[in-house]
Amino acid sequence: MTAVDDVLSGRPAASPTLDVDAIIGDPSVRIVVCCGSGGVGKTTTAAALGLRAAEQGRRTVVLTIDPARRLAQSMGLTELSNTPREVAGVDTGNGGALFAMMLDMKRTFDEVVLAHTDPAKAQEIFANPFYQAMSSTFAGTQEYMAMEKLGQLRATDEWDLIVVDTPPSRSALDFLDAPQHLAKFLDGRMLRMLLVPARNGGRSVLRLMTASFSLVGRAFMKVLGTELISDVSTFVSSLDSTFGGFRQRAERTYRVLQHRETAFLLVAAPEPDAIREATYFAERLSADRMPLSGLVLNRVHQVAAAQLSTDRSLGAAESLTAAAESPQTAAALRIHAGLRRRVARERSVAERFALAHPQVPLSAVPAQPADVHDLDGLRAVGAALGDAH
Amino acid sequence: MPRPADNAGPADPSAWPRARLHVVTGKGGTGKTTVAGALALALAADGRRTLIVEVEGRQGLAQLFDTPPLPYAERRVAVAPGGGEVRALAVDAEEALLDYLDMFYRLGTAGRALKRLGAIDFATTIAPGLRDVLLTGKVKEAVTRTEQGRRARGRTYDAVVLDAPPTGRIARFLNVTAETAKLAKVGPIKTQSEGVAAILRSPLTAVHVVTLLEEMPVQETADATAELAELGMSVGSVIVNETRPALLDGAKVTQAELRRGLTTAGLPADRATVAGLAAEVAEYRSRLDLERRLRDELARLDRLMLELPLLPDGIDVSALYSLAETLTKQGVVAA
Question: Which is nearest to A143 in space by CA: A41, A63, A68, A218?
């Protein structure tokens, strides 16, 4: 790619180029995690990478969280499906295959419970109001369950490559923080305190609170209420063994993310907010010794009439309008000038990231005229990613 | 620059909801924080005072108004046109809980003890829905604060703007009673969440959805509109962000015409330039067709539609004033 191309594509000249094909073609890479803030095309990127890997011969599964309806349809996911399904219409000539699944966090949670308790106890847990609320609305459940599902998929050893689309969290960091959050909760003093009354049959909750914890206990009761505390207490004790196992697995998955078999791909749009989030995430990954393979700069605009500068175009449009000459050309020049300014703005945003992280390889995917919602569209995105270098 | 919603749905400025609390949501990447900031400025015009609140711990408001990170306190971040001011608050769930405990139970020291036990962590991150009750509870307090109130200390507002979570989570975030009803059948959490829910469903509150003329944001706007209606809340207005003037409406552009025009203007008219320009025009036109179709879809939601232009040089504080002015011209005014 020449310097002029770099200017026009919006990719900062200083950054190394991200070679996506080298990543998905490397048999030692088993997991690709796509992360980034909301609205940057993370899901589409994950699906496009999965399709490209499958058509290059790898047995691939894409774990998506909440794909847009039409994108889900293009992958044969017309209903919520918590087990991988083969995607039709994929070229399997190279020996690969594409499977896709959508995370159902409640069902995943239920499965974890079922796998670790006897059926009677499981029913008891399912009936607990705290469990019902937690398994469907728990802040962070989606992150835990995405991690859990990733661990399950990896454990079956059925796939050459697992491509993960991370949940649309408040911040991209929530995905990494979820397992530790859970571990902190499980190891916390509060949990042990909650477990004591339950082990004594549950009746001593009030006595324990008022006697041993006096001020603290009373505050606790006031905020949460006795009923909630006893629900939580029963829940936690009945789920104790399950949680222990879950925590261990979450920690194991977290360690897998630090292995060489995992590649993190940051996805960002060339907008200040998305780039800022990407910067935080890049810093966090390096602090946690997790391998960041590169940044995919999504929906980058490009200029076709490269010779015409912004100023000359606008000046010429003015003089054409003043002379009442070719209004179409004047409009075309204004469109061109607007596009050029946009490209320049996107480029300066990308430059900022490149300056902060000069070692992170970068690849720019051109903006598509319409949203992607079929396999051909995904193929085009995959080709743009693969051909960037 | 500002362009009225000429080919859009209802744009009667008198339809702007006379609410005190303006909740701003939208798909990620649509610029909802920017729109919330412009809205807070517009509502503060002519000597009024508004509070803009963020609840997601992103310090997006500090970046927007170009100020240092906001503490858990109401700080002035901008002066409005014609006098008036915008204050900003970054609500932190943990601080809100301690604040709440202190306010109602006078639990200064016990609060800190709870923190050591991990109970605050539990309450704000683990317990389902509780975090949202605390965050919206703080917003409710700011909305209903009165001059005579014990804690008001002269900090009442003409309007409160909430930079809310994105469309995908907005219904869950605002539906605090249902969430907590699953957990707390009685007690202070229930009382608190019912109080918040009543405000959110009253004419005191308007929920606005920010969108772009792109497929996914428009789809999510329609989904959020339906979800909110089901919960007894409704969309006050749909704010279409980053709109561009429609150049070349309907006119066909041939390469021959471009070549002639470029030559007349004294610009290079070689084959590559002409073809490049023609390609850019073709892409622009297909974009325009898509935008027209999406605008029609939005119009079918039958909500007040406001428009904000794409500002070619990006968003800074002065751009925010220009967007606020555009909103004012479309009828946005504090109740």
Answer: A63
Number of domains in chain B: 1
Task: Tell which B residues from 64 to 93 touch A, by Cβ distance under 8 Å.
Answer: none
Residue A29 token pair: 């890479």
A78 located within any domain = yes
Residue A183 lies in a domain: yes
- Which of A243, A2, A18, A300 lies closest to A116, judged by CA? A243
**Choice between B112 and A212, residue whose per-residue pLDDT is larger:** B112
Q: B236: part of which helix (H) or strand (E)? A: strand B235-243
CB atoms within 10 A of CB A91: 13
In the stretch 348-367 of chain A, residues with CB closer than 8 A to chain B read none
A215: nearest CB among B63, B110, B119 = B110
Each residue of A185-236: pLDDT tens digit? 666 666 666 655 444 444 444 444 444 455 555 666 666 666 767 777 777 7
- Rounded-to-integer distance, Cα B321 and Cα B326, Å: 9
Does A210 touch chain B if contact means CB atoms closer than 8 Å? no
Q: Would residue B22 count as lying in a domain?
A: yes
Residue B142 in any domain: the answer is yes
CB-based contact, B267 to chain A, within 8 Å = yes
CATH of the domain at A25: 3.40.50.300
Q: Where are the beta strands (DSSP E) in chain A?
A: 31-35, 59-64, 85-86, 97-102, 161-165, 262-268, 292-300, 362-366
- Please indicate whether residue B119 or residue B131 has the higher confidence score (pLDDT): B131
CA A54 to chain B, closest CA, distance in angstroms equals 26
Q: Is residue A203 part of a domain?
A: no
Tens-digit pLDDT profile for residues B323-333: 999 999 999 99
Q: Which domain holds residue B186?
A: 13-246+302-330
Taking a C-beta distance cutoff of 8 angstroms, is the pair B109, A215 a contact?
Answer: yes
ipTM over 0.85: no
Q: Tell me which residue has tokens 């041939």.
A: B254
Distance CA B235, CA B303 (A): 7
Best of A325, A329, A336, A351 to disrupt the B interface by mutation (most B CBs within 10 Å)? A329
Chain A residue whose CA is closest to B250? A328
B29: in domain: yes
CATH code (residue B76): 3.40.50.300
Q: Which residue of A lies nearest to B63 if distances are taken between CA atoms?
A: A273
Cα–Cα distance, B33 to B185 (Å, whole number): 35
A105 — pLDDT class (breaks 50, 70, 90): confident
Amino acid at position A119, single letter: P
Structural domain range at position A276: 20-195+213-303+360-386
Task: List Cα–Cα distances, B18 to B15, B22, B159, B309, B332, in angstroms.
Answer: 9, 10, 10, 24, 9
Q: Is position A350 within any domain?
A: no
Closest chain B C-alpha to A366 CA, distance in angstroms: 13
B288 part of a folded domain: no
pLDDT classification of A243: cutoffs 50, 70, 90: low
> Minimal Cα–Cα distance from B47 to chain A, Å?
31
Q: Is B184 in Cβ contact with A224 (below 8 Å)?
A: yes
Q: How many domains does chain A have?
A: 1
Question: What's the Cα-to-Cα distance from B5 to each of A33, B207, B213, B239, B328, rounded to whole Å?
Answer: 41, 20, 13, 10, 14
